[in-house]
């Protein structure tokens, strides 16, 4: 017989004894039927003594863990009367028929009250003389029983056990359905928590959670290892920890629009959370609080949750981003531990640690730490994904494989899009003068050798700011600016974050800066190439202050200047005209690469390079096309592609007729219509 069955039978025997004493023989007979035997007074006494003996054996059997029922008694500080009352509550779960008998014996409610238990046990307790003791008894019971918000005197409030309580007592640790997405329990020592960095922060957290009446705020970036460091500290002091997702709690409480109902639901969930803490003798860590500093109402709700949890005799922690300040809003002592930014050497240690943990020594951890600004949690996820990938043995050594994995663990952008360019072209495919190609090669070198220069050679100490790689690509449309960005992306294995300026520029004051801040933060985190195409609209010259809007526009430009200087990554701006760009931007650019219109010789190369070997060609006068038509590389590509489609339509090889017709259409699109004489020696074929 399990301990809960034993407790239920014991309560049922007491009920049978009580019914016989008050003359309810029929009710007593029903109790005996539930027990499966008809009991004399002597049998009842023997069974009660036997039950008490078995309970003592359960409690003092050193060969097994103390049953959860007795753990509950201790953690809830239940009085002896509270323990006896809990027996009746458990009995009602095992024998639901009792509800009808309770209604008949005591009141209309089918549940026991504290007053009912005192009657059945014939305890010499009265409210007048034992009020503090009775209140303490009810308070202990209320911690573990079902949350009920009925009005009335505690002495006569129903005592109800829910399924979760019984499940926990029966060694089931799965939270119920409505709590499953909201909470999780970390049992000290259940996971291997190895510190690769952050030893000093872990010591601060350990000291803080061991202080009585102290709330610990662990502030840092998302995935900076806040919960991981807390788990490490919990292992050190053998403290279980309940993790509560704050946003999931908010969602559960805001299911109804009625504010009163929301408050009741909030109290209901707070009760259940406290009870889970009591179940596992656990502290609590509130997480999922990012970005709430923008909403004072949410901050107040967070503080209310913390206030509620402080009543528990366990550590209370909250993880936040490094912008949220709570100390000035609280009266109790809060210890704010700010996690330092993760440096390149830190990332290298973490990559090395997880590579060894998963047995993947072939990963180029130096390159991974240098190129991808992942936080500890993201590195852990990336390493695990590499380990689980079916291609890890043949692909993990490749830079592109590692780049793909690192990009997968990063959040999606809210403006613009991050694109990994799959081009196989190199700098030799760009039809540019050699000095421009050399500058583009230098940009790639700046990225590939950052760790050597800044870490190995210590140059970071000399350059607190200005470590970014910034370049301005200037040139008419179609001269290869975007193509150059894609080639750089392929050469250094970093994706391009192409900004859609229509999603960033906002007519409302201050909104553009907010959106750009999000863009810069994500770009820096993912170490993408931040590419502003046609950047004149946002990086243009500042104007004279004639109206209030001019002053705000200039403030916007100044903000962007400052943000580019702080940005520790690659920023490439593209503009058609150098004169459109503010001079302050030009001064802050590390590289200025001019993309000139191609000369005749270069144009001839571009014409030839646009055709593949598979395209059927009749006769093409490349020298004539290059000499007589000043087109950019982009325009030439358009002409060739359209000509090839014409040939495919007519089922014939590509000849001068298709190319010249396509060229005429391209000129028309540019607002430069052509007449027959413009085609010179090839005018006759245009008459056909």
Which stretches are low in confidence, meaning pLDDT under 50 for 5 or more residues running? 543-552
Q: How is the CATH topology of the largest domain named? A: Rossmann fold
Under CATH, the homologous superfamily of the largest domain reads P-loop containing nucleotide triphosphate hydrolases
The value of Rg in angstroms is 37 Å
Which structural class do you get from the secondary structure elements? alpha/beta
How many β-strands, per DSSP? Answer: 12
**What is the global morphology?**
elongated
- Average pLDDT figure: 83
Strand share of the residues? 5-15%
CATH architecture of the largest domain: 3-Layer(aba) Sandwich
Distance between the termini: 103 Å
Oligomeric nature of the chains: single chain
Total discrete domains: 5
The strand line-up of the biggest sheet is 1-3-4-5-2-6
What count of helical segments does DSSP give?
33
Main beta sheet strand tally, sense and closure: 6 strands, mixed
Helical content (DSSP H or I, runs of 4+): 40-55%
Give the CATH class of the largest domain.
Alpha Beta
């Amino acid at each position: 017989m399990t301990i809960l069955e034993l407790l239920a039978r014991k309560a049922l025997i007491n009920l049978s004894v009580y019914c016989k004493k008050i003359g309810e023989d029929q009710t007593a007979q029903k109790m005996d039927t539930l027990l499966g035997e008809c009991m004399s007074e002597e049998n009842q006494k023997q069974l009660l003594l036997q039950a008490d003996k078995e309970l003592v054996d359960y409690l003092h059997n050193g060969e097994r863990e103390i049953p959860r029922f007795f753990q509950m008694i201790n953690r809830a500080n239940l009085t002896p009367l509270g323990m006896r009352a809990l027996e009746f509550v458990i009995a009602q779960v095992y024998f639901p028929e009792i509800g009808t008998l309770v209604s008949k014996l005591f009141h209309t409610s089918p549940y026991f009250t504290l007053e009912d238990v005192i009657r059945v046990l014939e305890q010499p307790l009265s409210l007048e003389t034992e009020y503090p003791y009775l209140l303490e008894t009810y308070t202990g019971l209320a911690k573990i029983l079902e949350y009920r918000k009925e009005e009335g005197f505690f002495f006569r409030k129903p005592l109800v056990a829910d399924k979760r309580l019984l499940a926990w007592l029966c060694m089931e640790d799965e939270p119920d359905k409505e709590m499953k997405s909201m909470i999780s329990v970390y049992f000290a020592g259940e996971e291997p928590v190895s510190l690769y960095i952050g030893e000093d922060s872990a010591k601060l957290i350990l000291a803080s959670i061991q202080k009585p009446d102290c709330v610990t705020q662990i502030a840092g970036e998302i995935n900076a290892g806040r919960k991981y460091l807390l788990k490490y500290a919990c292992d050190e002091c053998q403290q279980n920890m309940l993790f509560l997702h704050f946003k999931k709690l908010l969602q559960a409480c805001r299911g109804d629009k009625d504010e009163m109902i929301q408050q009741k639901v909030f109290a209901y969930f707070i009760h259940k959370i406290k009870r889970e803490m009591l179940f596992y003798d656990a502290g609590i860590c509130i997480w999922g609080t990012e970005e709430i500093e923008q909403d004072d109402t949410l901050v107040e709700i967070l503080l209310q949750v913390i206030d509620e949890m402080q009543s528990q005799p366990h550590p209370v922690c909250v993880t936040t981003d490094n912008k949220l300040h709570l100390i000035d809003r609280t009266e109790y002592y809060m210890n704010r531990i700010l996690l330092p930014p993760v440096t390149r050497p830190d990332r290298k240690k973490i990559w090395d640690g997880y590579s060894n943990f998963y047995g993947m020594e072939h990963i180029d951890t130096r390159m991974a730490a240098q190129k991808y600004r992942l936080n500890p949690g993201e590195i852990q996820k990336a390493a695990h994904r590499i380990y689980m990938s079916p291609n890890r043995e043949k692909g993990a050594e490749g830079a592109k494989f590692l780049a793909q994995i690192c990009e997968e663990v990063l959040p999606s952008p809210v403006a613009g899009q991050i694109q990994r360019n799959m081009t196989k072209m190199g700098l030799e495919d760009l039809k540019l003068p050699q000095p421009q190609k050399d500058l583009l090669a230098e940009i790639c070198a700046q990225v590939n050798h950052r760790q050597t220069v800044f870490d190995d050679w210590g140059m970071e100490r000399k350059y607190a700011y200005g470590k970014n790689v910034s370049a301005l690509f200037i040139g008419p449309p179609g001269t290869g600016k975007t193509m150059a960005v894609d080639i750089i992306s392929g050469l250094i294995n970093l994706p391009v974050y192409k900004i859609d300026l229509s999603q960033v520029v906002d007519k409302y004051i201050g909104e553009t800066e907010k959106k750009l801040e999000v863009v810069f933060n994500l770009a820096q985190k993912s170490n993408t190439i931040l590419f502003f195409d046609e950047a004149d609209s946002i990086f243009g010259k500042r104007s004279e202050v004639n109206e209030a809007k001019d002053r705000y526009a200039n403030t916007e430009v100044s903000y962007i200047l400052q943000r580019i200087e702080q940005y520790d990554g690659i920023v490439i701006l593209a503009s058609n005209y150098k004169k459109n760009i503010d001079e302050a931007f030009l001064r802050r650019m590390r590289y200025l690469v001019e993309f000139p219109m191609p000369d005749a010789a270069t144009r001839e190369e571009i014409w030839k390079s646009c055709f593949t070997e598979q395209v059927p060609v009749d006769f093409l006068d490349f020298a004539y096309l290059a000499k007589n038509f000043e087109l950019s590389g982009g325009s030439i590509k358009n002409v060739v592609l359209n000509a090839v489609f014409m040939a495919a339509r007519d089922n014939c090889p590509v000849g001068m007729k298709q190319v010249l017709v396509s060229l005429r259409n391209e000129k028309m699109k540019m607002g430069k219509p052509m007449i027959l004489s413009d085609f010179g020696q090839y005018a006759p074929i245009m008459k056909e």
